[in-house]
């Protein structure tokens, strides 16, 4: 079901395309404004479009182009399906664990002004921590990490979702199926202390020597949350489908938009995950959303250890063969080029057009706008 309101509606009401619009509290204003403008223009005449014809029923479909921006709620479905399809081939016969590493709010000002440094340090310190605990067991581990920077109310809340297989490679190159227990990966209190120390060291290595900041970081307990292990490989895939290509807010959470404000739903985790609604001015919504626009070319999904790209060049396949893992090949289930009219034909592009709109001859033919 298509949502009634979209993030793009809020951006248009906030006059993102207006030359006077600015984000003074954020350093990378130009990149963020370009991203916001792309989202506001997504699937509108501003980006041009194309005329498609169904290979089966012949219906003509006129549609506007997508922005294809990774922060756009409307442009992630196909990318998500392709990514999950590739990850299914990497599964190993073991328990998988889900661990979340968070950053304290004292680092939020630094994250706003130096996001690349703060988030790179997060990835590096988390993998160094997990790898150190694996080394104590005499194992080379692997890990998939996904960066999220938002809370339910669009506040800045950087945290790293980690999927760790409960097995690894020992010094002799042999697979060890189980670390300690199928109930937990490593003690979270021990993980928290090591992770905090490694992150602070990352800051120092990058030239951050603010004594007050460093002391405040050591003064509090850092949160590392270990969820219950996945029941099996299929649950891992379902989790990846929900988390990997998420953006700060989905269109379905936006309940109302007008000229001055936007109402959105959220879960209040401090009150038993109760569903609530909040209303923000359009400008405040844009300011909060813009906090989660990552720097250009920043990689937010990373793979480490036995799940890294190096291992995938033959080593992982050899390990799966030794463990008698059946690599299942299945077609990618996507409706990207399916005809929404007959549901069987493939859409074939027969003409493209610019901002002036589609050629008149196609407007007189039977047509149906494809489902976004």
Secondary structure blueprint with pairings:
Elements: H1 7-13, H2 29-41, E1 49-54, E2 60-64, H3 77-88, E3 96-102, H4 108-113, H5 115-136, E4 142-150, E5 156-165, E6 168-169, E7 175-176, H6 188-205, H7 211-218, E8 224-226, H8 233-243, E9 254-257, E10 261-268, E11 274-281, H9 282-290, E12 301-305, H10 315-322, E13 347-353, H11 360-363
Antiparallel strand pairs: 1-2, 1-13, 3-5, 3-8, 4-5, 4-12, 6-7, 9-10, 10-11
Helix pairs in contact: 1-2, 3-8, 5-6
Shape: globular
Q: Would you count the extended β strands for me?
A: 13
Structural class: alpha+beta
Q: Report the average pLDDT across residues.
A: 86
* Radius of gyration computed on alpha carbons: 23 Å
- Placed side by side, the strands forming the largest sheet appear as 8-3-5-4-12
**Could you name the ranges where pLDDT drops below 50 across 5 or more consecutive residues?**
366-372
Element order: H for helix, E for strand: HHEEHEHHEEEEHHEHEEEHEHEH
Strand content bin: 15-25%
Question: Helix fraction?
Answer: 25-40%
Number of helices: 11
């Amino acid at each position: 079901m298509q949502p009634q309101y979209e993030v793009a509606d809020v951006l248009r009401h906030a006059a993102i395309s207006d030359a006077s619009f600015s984000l003074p509290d954020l350093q990378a204003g130009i990149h963020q404004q370009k991203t916001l403008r792309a989202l506001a223009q997504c699937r509108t005449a501003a980006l041009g479009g194309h005329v498609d014809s169904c290979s089966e029923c012949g219906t003509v479909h006129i549609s506007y182009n997508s922005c294809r921006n990774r922060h756009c709620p409307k442009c992630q479905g196909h990318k998500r399906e392709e990514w999950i399809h590739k990850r299914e081939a990497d599964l190993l016969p073991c328990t998988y664990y889900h661990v979340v590493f968070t950053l304290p709010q004292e680092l939020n000002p630094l994250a706003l002004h130096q996001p690349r440094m703060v988030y790179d340090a997060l990835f590096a310190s988390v993998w160094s921590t997990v790898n150190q605990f694996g080394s104590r067991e005499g194992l080379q581990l692997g890990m998939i990490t996904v960066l999220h920077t938002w809370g339910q109310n669009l506040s800045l809340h950087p945290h790293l979702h980690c999927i760790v297989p409960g097995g690894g490679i020992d010094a002799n190159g042999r697979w060890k199926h189980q670390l300690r227990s199928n109930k937990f990966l490593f003690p979270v209190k021990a993980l928290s202390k090591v992770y905090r120390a490694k992150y602070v060291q990352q800051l120092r290595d990058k030239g951050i020597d603010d004594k007050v900041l460093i002391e405040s970081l050591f003064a509090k307990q850092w949160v590392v949350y270990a969820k219950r292990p996945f029941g099996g490989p299929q649950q891992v895939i379902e989790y990846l489908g929900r988390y990997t290509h998420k953006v700060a807010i989905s269109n379905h959470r936006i309940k109302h938009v007008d000229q001055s404000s936007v109402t959105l739903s959220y879960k209040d985790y401090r009150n038993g995950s109760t569903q609530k609604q909040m209303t923000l001015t359009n400008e405040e919504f844009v300011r909060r959303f813009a906090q989660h626009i990552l720097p250009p070319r920043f990689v937010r999904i990373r793979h480490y250890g036995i799940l890294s790209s190096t291992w995938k060049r033959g080593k992982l396949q050899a390990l799966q063969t030794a463990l008698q893992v059946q690599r299942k090949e299945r077609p990618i289930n996507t409706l990207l080029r399916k005809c929404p009219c007959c549901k069987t034909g493939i859409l074939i592009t027969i003409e493209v057009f610019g901002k002036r709109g589609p050629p008149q001859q196609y407007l007189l033919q039977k047509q149906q706008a494809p489902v976004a």
